[in-house]
Amino acid sequence: MSSINPFVQVAQQMTLGAAVKQNHALEHATIVLLSKKYPDLRLAGISFAAGFFVFGDVPTEAILPAAQEALNLLRTTTPELAIHERCGTNLAVSGMLTGLAAMTVAKMRRPYSTPNNVILASTAALILARPLGLTVQRFITTQTPNASMTITKVTKHTFLGTTAHFVHTENPEAAGLFS
User: Fold this and answer.
1) Which single residue of 26, 148, 167, 176 has CA 20 to 30 Å from 69?
2) Do 104 and 178 touch, CB atoms closer than 8 A?
């Protein structure tokens, strides 16, 4: 079993390399499937080049089958599972767009730089941010897993009293620095 060296993992994370984007898509799809099976649980995740975390009190034995099913669905019939409404990408896009809108209007000359116009611009930015965030996910922060991606194991961890599972993946085609 090979693994991505630490330098490449960091570079992939910083540049949103293929391994990170493919794991991000798999993380979303896995969380969707787990949420259907455990609707009362609050789940979250974060992706890396070597795999992804699922945060939430999910039975360990449920993670691997859900991730394997998610991988199959992403590659075949349901690639849209890669896009998730509650993704952090959406929050980042909302924050950046709202901040830029508020700063732009605040720096305008009077009578345009009023507090009402700053609020109006921020609100308009938030409305625009939702579809833009989903588009950013689709084209920038997620990618359908390629044929070389495999799920190797799931390990259970605890962070600050929260249960987390790390889903380890191997992806030789995406393991390079500039994949």
Assistant:
1) 176
2) no
Rg (CA), the chain: 19
Beta bridge partners of 47: 52
**What CA–CA distances, in Å, run from 124 to 103, 128, 133, 162, 179?**
13, 6, 14, 36, 37
pLDDT digits (tens, 9 = 90+) for 88-132: 999 999 999 999 999 999 999 989 899 999 999 999 999 999 999
State the pTM of this model: 0.90
How many CB atoms lie under 10 A from the CB of residue 141?
23
Backbone angles phi and psi of 73, in degrees to 5: -65, -40
- C-alpha 11/C-alpha 118 separation (Å) is 38
Residues 6+ apart with CB under 8 A from 96: none
Check if the beta carbon of residue 34 is closer than 8 Å to that of residue 60: no
State pLDDT tens for residues 144-166: 999 999 999 999 999 999 999 99
